[in-house]
């Protein structure tokens, strides 16, 4: 008995010492910058005006919250995340079902479809901006000309849509990769039995495939959400947030405040708002995922 | 009967042909931008921007030669390699003991700790950009490889712990217990039993970590200028109007994405399991 009891204590100590580096580092990574951001957000602190200092109270928040650009950026963030999520989940499900069927060269076709996921965001943004969507020499302009249509100046007339298209192209493969794997674990006998009972392909899709994919879809939504809320490189490289504020999301707005305007106080207030927003999302997501993992 | 059978077979074949056509059309559309980038990298600048786009041309490697002639391409590539490998090794080193204890010595708090770790990924980088920028400025870590290695390591640590935990959990406890009976210490247990058994999982975790670090752009764009700038920052420099030479841009891009694309293709199956933390099999 005593050995078991002492073994448990040693186990507890061992657990602690083994986890300490990872937990400690992440704790520091979270707490120190967070505390500093909170502190700065209540300060007058502009790197261009070193003489202006002191406690600002809620001024930074007041200016930020009454500045229409914050709400534009927030709207853009939600539009971007929302549309990309819808497009990748719907498109990913359909593509996964398609790629699961037997056809010639299936293996290679699958590799082609998932390829964009591994492409550097700065590269995909530049390739799309210049070689695909360029209003004069781009592939889209050329295709439009084949049909006698005028070319679209994508980033001038449909800036946010263009960014959404690029980001969707990058994240659709991720959804396909996960959902395809999930579909492969679907029981063939169940599908066969349903077919025997006279279920059509649509009924099989809605009553068997889709419920089977529920867990995979929730994982896709969670992971994409983590990355999409902070999309930066694609906007930095293609539009720099413009024209005007058309493609400025929250991440880019804070970037402008911080590193272009050098307004530490204002940018920190923006950072706090971004963190609150992310935590609202995380609260619901982590719950869902935790539930999923327990089952 | 025989006629029916052959008709059925023919309809199966027809279905397969239609599926092949549809699936390949979509696959080629998805892959087209990458293919086009690759093709453009072998064109001259004039051919690169020609309308209609030229599909047949005499391939030249001038784009690649000019990229090399700029002489700085390899500096950026080396930075990418050093930073992503450094961050990955460091993350694995810190995450392996942690994941080991979570998988084999679970307590009531383990699940909570895991979820908390993941929630740090939700902390938006922009929210903490300024403090990190100022800390780095004061510590002299701006534009240094060490700085980016630390950031990428911290950024990937939660995912690395989760993935390793997923892979470790699949190893039967009995095997490790047998080792402990024979007098193996925790370190020996990890080195001689756990690591060899989970090598494929560790490898795919490492590769995903390399991919994420290699492609990361937010921190590299904001914390480096020239010395430690990796390929993401180098490629972004092509977005300035004077840098818009499509053939050269394509050549540099091809070199930047090729290794990671091949890595990704090789490990896609394992990656799914790790990325979904075993929730999808």
Please, could you describe this protein's structure?
The complex is a heterodimer of chains A (295) and B (281). Chain A is an all-alpha fold and 295 residues long. Chain A is 76% helix and 0% strand. Chain A has helices at residues 2-41, 59-65, 68-100, 106-114, 121-132, 139-146, 154-157, 159-184, 188-196, 201-228, 233-238, 250-260, 264-294. In chain A, helix 10 runs antiparallel to helix 13. The longest helix of chain A has 40 residues, at 2-41. Chain A is globular. Chain B is mainly α. Chain B has helices spanning 2-40, 45-48, 62-69, 73-104, 109-121, 125-139, 145-169, 173-181, 186-197, 199-215, 218-223, 231-236, 246-275. Chain B is flat and about 70 Å long. The interface between A and B is large, with 104 and 96 residues. Chain B: It is a multi-pass membrane protein. Chain B: Pfam families: BPD_transp_1.
Features:
heterodimer; A: 295 residues; mainly alpha; globular; B: 281 residues; MetI-like fold; 2 domains; 13 helices; 0% strand
Put the structure in a nutshell.
Chain A has 13 helices and no strands.
Low-confidence stretches of chain A: 1-9
Instruction: Return the domain count of chain B.
Output: 2
Spatial shape of chain B? flat
Number of helices of chain A: 13
Order of helices and strands of chain A: HHHHHHHHHHHHH
Domain ABC transmembrane type-1 (chain B): 77-267
Protein name (chain B): Carbohydrate ABC transporter permease
Family (chain B): Belongs to the binding-protein-dependent transport system permease family. MalFG subfamily.
Keywords (chain B): Cell membrane, Membrane, Transmembrane, Transmembrane helix, Transport
Helix-strand blueprint:
The complex is a heterodimer of chains A (295) and B (281).
Chain A: H1 2-41, H2 59-65, H3 68-100, H4 106-114, H5 121-132, H6 139-146, H7 154-157, H8 159-184, H9 188-196, H10 201-228, H11 233-238, H12 250-260, H13 264-294
Chain B: H1 2-40, H2 45-48, H3 62-69, H4 73-104, H5 109-121, H6 125-139, H7 145-169, H8 173-181, H9 186-197, H10 199-215, H11 218-223, H12 231-236, H13 246-275
InterPro entries (chain B): BP-dep_ABC_trans_perm, MetI-like, MetI-like_sf
GO cellular component, one term (chain B): plasma membrane
GO biological process, one term (chain B): transmembrane transport
